[in-house]
Amino acid sequence: MINNNNKSITITGKIPVSGISENLEIHLIQITEDKLRNILIENQQALERRNEWVAPFGISLTLLITIITTTPTDSFGLNSSGWQALFYFCLIAAVIKTITTFVNRPKKTTIENIVDRIKNVRSGR
User: Fold this and answer.
1) What are the pLDDT digits (tens) for 57-71?
2) Domains in the chain: how many in total?
3) pLDDT of residue 71
4) What share of the chain is helix, strand, coil (3-state, %, to 5)?
């Protein structure tokens, strides 16, 4: 039962409703499927690139722990100082890779940024 005079509504006699708010404005976005796929693929690739620094960081951490906790011995035709130099070289390379991938990772993308790209709007958000 709906009574418009005093804005009192009762649905099936069980739930009293004090009013109805309407938000029916529609903003329609038209885009072709291939453009939408390209935008979503680019966003997915950017999300994956944001975490590329994790693998070299894990390798760096593993090499650092190995250097700290082990004493190299002569084996496989390489003396102990050679093994130590090899581990330090690998550690330095992994740290450099970690830093470069972390610094060059894409900016964080928000839902608003993705919608703006779909709408073909350039915004400073």
Assistant:
1) 999 999 999 989 988
2) 1
3) 85
4) 55, 10, 40
Task: State the Cα–Cα distance between residues 59 and 19, nearest whole angstrom.
Answer: 60
pLDDT value of position 10: 55
In a domain, 3, yes or no: no
CA distance 80 to 64: 17
For position 60, what pLDDT does the model report?
A: 95
Region for residue 77 given its phi and psi (left: phi exceeds 0; alpha: psi -120 to 50; beta: otherwise): left
- CA atoms of 121 and 5, how far apart (whole Å): 45
The whole-number pLDDT of residue 125 equals: 43
Q: Which segments in the chain show pLDDT lower than 70?
A: 1-13, 122-125
User: Domain range for residue 50?
Assistant: 29-118
Q: Angle 111-118/33-50 helices, nearest 10 degrees?
A: 150
Q: What are phi and psi of 89, to 5 degrees?
A: -60, -45
Interacting residues of 113 by C-beta distance below 8 A, sequence separation 6+ = 123, 125
Residue 95 lies in a domain: yes
